[in-house]
Amino acid sequence: MSDISLAEFIVYGVIAYAGMLVLIISTIKEVPQTKVLSIARSIFMIPSIVASGILASSGVNIQVATVDTSNLIKSINTTQTWTETTTQINNIVLQNPVWQMFHYLLFVVMLVYVIQQMLILFTSYKEAQRAE
Fold first, then answer.
1. Beta strand 81-93 with 61-74: parallel, antiparallel or unpaired?
2. Could you read off the pLDDT of 54-65 as tens digits, one per residue?
3. How many whole angstroms separate alpha carbon 80 and alpha carbon 96?
4. Where are the domains of the chain?
5. Which secondary-structure segment (H or E) carries 70?
6. How far apart, in whole angstroms, are the C-alpha atoms of residue 42 and residue 116?
7. 127 DSSP β-pair partners
8. Prediction pTM value
9. pLDDT (tens digit per residue) in 91-114
10. Higher pLDDT residue, 34 or 123?
């Protein structure tokens, strides 16, 4: 599992949680089940699915800063030189691994919703009957 930066964690989190919020609101509010609206709901839910999948597959480390330090040491008496390079990575470590499982859960719930909307798209006969 790869580590992600703090900015990526915030952006993916906002997208994933906004999609889940829209899904929760759509269960409270009465939404018409038409073909055109089902495809629109699915298209706008796909970025949230991808973002929650990325959050679920990322590790427990969130990188805050990476500091690279290079030193060049020259000897005064001789012509010898030494170089030293150090890299320091500062991380925020998620203490509870339940966050990965929670993001997998969001991923699955939104994926099931998109599959349901695609089934509505392919099986809805209401608009075809109105045209006749």
1. antiparallel
2. 998 887 888 887
3. 50
4. 4-63+97-131
5. strand 61-74
6. 9
7. none
8. 0.74
9. 888 887 788 889 999 999 999 999
10. 123
* Residue found by looking up tokens 């089934």 in the block: 119
Contacts (Cβ under 8 Å, ≥6 apart) of 66: 87, 88, 89, 90
Task: Round to whole Å and give the CA distance between 92 and 7.
Answer: 12
The pLDDT of residue 16:
94
The Cβ of residue 12 has, within 10 Å, a number of other Cβ atoms equal to 22
Phi–psi pair at 78, nearest 5 degrees: -125, 180
Provide the β-strand partners of residue 74.
Answer: 81
Question: Which residues lie closer than 8 Å to 15 by C-beta, 6 or more apart?
Answer: 47, 48, 51
Residue 91 identity: N
Number of neighbours of residue 35 by Cβ within 10 angstroms:
17
- Strands in 4-5's sheet, in edge-to-edge order, are 4-5, 61-74, 81-93
Supply 93's token pair.
């470590």
